[in-house]
Amino acid sequence: MPFDKNVLKIDAAQETQRLVSLLQETVYRQMKRRGVVLGVSGGVDSSVALALCVRAFGAGRVIALLLPEKDSDPESEQIARRLAAQLGVEPVLEIITPALEGFGCYHRRDEAIRRVFPEYDAALGYKAKIVLPQSPLESRTLNVFQLTIITPEGEEKSHRLPPAEYFQIVAASNFKQRTRMMYLYYHAELRNYAVVGTANRNEHEQGFFVKYGDGGADVKPLLHLYKTQVYQLAEYLDIPHDIRSRPPTSDTYSAPSTQEEFFFRMPFETMDLLWYAQESGVSPEEVARQMGLTEVQVLNAFEDFTRKKRTTAYLRMAPVTFEAD
After folding, report:
1. Whole-angstrom Cα distance, residue 43 to residue 79?
2. Distance between CA 199 and CA 91 in Å, rounded?
3. Which of 84, 135, 227, 248 has its CA 20 to 30 A from that of 235?
4. Distances from the Cα of 161 to the Cα of 15, 165, 168, 171, angstroms
5. Residue 109 has what DSSP assignment?
6. pLDDT value at position 141?
7. What is the CATH number of the domain that holds 223?
8. 180 near 199, Cβ under 8 Å?
């Protein structure tokens, strides 16, 4: 297929019917489960997954879990509730803050933040997030994370994260996704249902997920789709405009952080085409010509994709087993 800006266009109606049939076959006949449970965040991926599940199983056999914690954007829950109402699903609320406090999630995270910014105090209104440097299209930079805090007065301060502090903040924050996974399986096992994951191709292949957290599910219907293709399904499925126009966020850190600034570093419309081109063996010269970029920009993006996939390969590994001697 020739490479151009329309190469990722899909037949959304046909793909919807295909995924609905596959969900029914997988959950009912292969897994012998009676319905599905999924976490709904107000983002486009979980919204599309919810709409597909309602088509596949009917609203009465779909459990939409709302799983906020104290750092979550309150708007996310309200958006998710409106979508559930539109689809005829009664959402189930599980506030995970007490569980996270029991695990020491916030204490362990804030301890590492204060080693970088001693003045940081969440109780006084400080907020924090982790971000990556500017787009690889702008400069050839490594994926070195920075810690940004926002003071109660609104001032932003940033500092390059030392490895020990980075690992501690991430490890503590990952309690959030793993706690949500436990609630999903509780509600699934309560009803003999399957857990539906909402990750897309970008998140899985580039490592933007938590192993045995949001990466833990029984069936993942969107895993083959680029983010821009998920948006095509969202439009066909009549997902509300406020969800489709909302910048995708990690909703993990107390300070607002989009997926682009936290991890992907490029708009999805640009990234998906570049990534498809790399995977399909399209020459950098042709990619640059079709997308109005320079070859250097294309090669920088290709290198960024390769590095992310290589450094996150562990996340996609199944448990290693050994044969008897």
Report:
1. 9
2. 20
3. 135
4. 42, 6, 11, 14
5. H
6. 59
7. 3.40.50.620
8. no
Residue holding tokens 């699903």? 89
Asked if the structure places residue 19 within a domain, the reply is yes
**Rounded CA gap, 76 and 87, in Å?**
17
For the chain of 325 residues, list the mean pLDDT of each consecutive stretch of 10.
90 98 98 98 95 98 97 93 96 98 98 97 94 68 81 94 95 97 98 97 91 96 97 97 85 74 78 93 95 92 91 93 91
Helix (H, G, I), strand (E, B) or coil at 229: helix
How far apart CA 272 and CA 277 sit, in angstroms, is 8
At 217 the three-state DSSP class reads: coil
Question: In a 3-state reduction of DSSP, which class is residue 119?
Answer: coil
Q: 309 is in which domain, residue-wise? A: 12-100+169-313
pLDDT of residue 325: 84
Q: What angle do CA 101, 103, 106 make, to 5 degrees?
A: 50
Cα 204 from Cα 213, distance rounded (Å): 12
CB neighbour list of residue 219: distance below 8 Å, 6 or more residues apart: 23, 26, 27, 31, 36, 194, 195, 196, 197
How many independent structural domains does the chain possess? 1
- Of the candidates 198, 239, 189, the one whose C-alpha atom is nearest the C-alpha of residue 217 is 198
Specify if 84 maps to a domain: yes
- Cα–Cα distances (Å) from 184 to 69, 145, 213, 255, 268, in that order, read 15, 30, 10, 26, 28
Residue 144 maps to a domain = no
The pLDDT of residue 132 is 76
Q: Give the helix ranges, DSSP H, for 88-238.
A: 97-103, 105-116, 163-191, 201-206, 227-236
Q: Is the separation of the CB atoms in 196 and 218 below 8 Å?
A: yes
